[in-house]
Amino acid sequence: MEQTVVESWIFAHGTFWALVPPIVAIVLALITKEVYSSLFLGVVMGGLFISQGSFPAFLDAVFKDGMIKQVTDVGNVGILFFLVILGTMVALMNKAGGSAAFGNWAKKHIKTKVGAQIATVCLGILIFVDDYFNCLTVGSVMRPVTDKFKVSHEKLAYLIDSTAAPICIIAPISSWAAAVTGFVDGEDGLGLFVKAIPFNFYALFTLVAMFALILLNVEFGPMRRYEDAEKVLDAQMKEVRKPEGKGGVIDLVFPIICLIVFCVIGMIYTGGFFATGDAHVGFVQAFADCNASVGLVLGSFAAFLITVLWYICRKVLSFNKCLECLPDGFKAMVPAILILTLAWSLKGSTDALGAKEFVAGIVSGSAAGFMNFMPALIFVIAIFLAFATGTSWGTFGILIPIVVAAFGGVDYQLMVISISACMAGAVCGDHISPISDTTIMASAGAQCNHVNHVNTQLPYALSVAGISFISFIVAGVTRSALISLALGVVLIVGGLFIMKKKKVYFNPLKKN
Predict the structure, then answer these.
(1) What is the Cα–Cα distance from 15 to 358, expressed in whole angstroms?
(2) Rounded to an integer, what distance in angstroms lies between the CA atom of residue 97 and that of residue 483?
(3) Quick count: other Cβ atoms within 10 Å of Cβ 471?
(4) 328: DSSP letter
(5) 109 near 145, Cβ under 8 Å?
(6) Is 140 exposed, middle or buried (0-12, 13-18, 19+ CB in 10 A)?
(7) In 97-174, where does DSSP find H-type helix?
(8) Which of 215, 231, 350, 395 fits 386 for a cystine, CB–CB 3.0-4.6 Å?
(9) Are 16 and 362 in contact (CB under 8 A)?
(10) Which residues contact 35 (CB under 8 A, 6 or more apart)?
């Protein structure tokens, strides 16, 4: 029966039509600036394509096999659980006075707006274990500091998002490295990942661009409007944070350290590091085999329990006051949970409609032709696929096996560059997609309107993507990471320097 249904989708299954629902959802979100209804309409369109006019099949596609299936998936439930615990941890630190104390400390030690932004980027780089953890932790820690120096929530969301996936994809010890190595069949996955790092141009250039934007004090596109909006920035500074405890800086630092340590422990636990006998594996292999969502739940829950005990023992908060933070944390994460649920449902529709088969056919059909330009082509295809589906890991799973099959045993260096192009394009597409879970959580961490975050980040990300595309063409021809990196850095820094000198900021929403 299922085979008959699949065959009846002949106009949609495995064709460009499979990508139409997410594209429609993304376009509607950007036009209407309302993400919930846009995502839901995308899910509905996917259900219509799948059901082929059958109303019961439509209901199943949207609800039973769509939203209900996604929110009951073990991995997705783990992510939602992790979100709620982190929201609770943030509420705990605020109520205990740790966030306020850190803000006062930072005010004394961080003297400028540039310093506040650099500190945010550096913290994001340090938290390289997982992108979800990165987004919410950096946001909760640095938001009080950036508010004091009138950094807009839109700019904070950009800094968070740009040090989440981009830093995780070039860190050998991360959940992303584990995902990538798992998709490489017949090769040394971790070894390939390490060799691919110098060619991961989008991730590296994103970090360069952030530092250049901050140090040169250049803003362009819609971001400039928000950074110049004095009334909005003044309103951020006047946000009332009334802690009930009299905690110190240690009451923020200690819980954050606990989160980092126990999340790492939780991840390697799920990978078999603490197993006995033949089941025991080393630290690196445990990361490669870990279940990130389960490990993050275990680690964050352990950190939550220890934080509660810490506050009680220090008499910063009572037990009852600590537990009051549970519903507060859940309420703070409701918008992110709702967007994630709809985004996952939309991804389920694209999978059911054969988006993977469509993209795989394009790549495998093109691999035999212009070999030197394949990294640039793969980069563009990965961007489009990740943008439309909102998932980097799904893009890895589709493209990396094709790249290994196409170049393995034929041109090892080109295989390494092409794998880098796949990873870079996946991160770029994920970075600019309104339905990406990382983008959603960056908005949540910065307490920024989600569509505003997408709009303001888009010009920055696309600029870096264009330079990365040029670098992949150069890398495909020269096989040199050094030449390609040098060219990209010169284009980024030189372009921003010229914009600053000529005062050309390309803001379509405000006259210069």
Answers:
(1) 5
(2) 50
(3) 29
(4) H
(5) no
(6) buried
(7) 98-109, 113-126, 131-148, 153-162, 165-168
(8) 395
(9) no
(10) 29, 339, 434, 450, 451
Q: How many residues does the chain have?
A: 512
**Dihedral class, residue 458 (left if φ above 0, else alpha if ψ from -120 to 50, else beta):** alpha
Residue 189 contacts residue 182 (beta carbons within 8 Å): yes
Q: Which long-range contacts (CB under 8 A, 24 or more apart) does 321-324 make?
A: 321/95, 321/244, 321/245, 322/92, 324/95
Between 11 and 216, the more confident residue is 216
Report the distance separating Cα 156 and Cα 279, nearest Å: 43
Which DSSP helix (H) or strand (E) runs through 308?
A: helix 292-313
Output Rg (C-alpha) for the chain, integer angstroms: 23
Contact 457, 443 (CB under 8 A): no
Helix axes 392-407, 355-366, angle to 10 degrees: 30
More confident residue, 160 or 182: 160
Q: Are 257 and 111 in contact (CB under 8 A)?
A: no
* 110 vs 137, residue with greater confidence: 110
Q: How far apart are CA 355 and CA 362, in angstroms?
A: 11
Closest by CA position to 151, among listed 173, 183, 120, 108: 120
Per-residue pLDDT tens over the stretch 289-304: 777 778 878 888 999 9
Would you say 144 and 123 are in contact if contact means Cβ atoms under 8 Å apart? no
Backbone φ and ψ for 163, nearest 5 degrees, come out as -115, 20
Which CA distances in Å does 479 have to 197, 414, 418, 419?
14, 7, 11, 13
pLDDT top residue among 62 and 401: 62
Which residue has 């550096």 as its token pair? 122
Query: Are 114 and 330 spatial neighbours (Cβ–Cβ below 8 Å)?
Result: no
**Amino acid at site 269:** Y
Around 320, how many Cα atoms within 13 Å sit in the side-chain half-sphere?
A: 0
Q: What is the pLDDT of residues 325-384, one digit of tens each?
A: 888 888 877 876 777 788 778 778 877 887 767 766 665 555 555 677 888 988 998 898
Letter for the amino acid at 469?
F
Structure tokens at 93: 């630190």
pTM of the model: 0.69
pLDDT at 305: 94
* Whole-number Å distance between alpha carbons of 275 and 400: 30
Which of 133, 97, 230 lies closest to 445, judged by CA? 133
Amino acid at 151: V
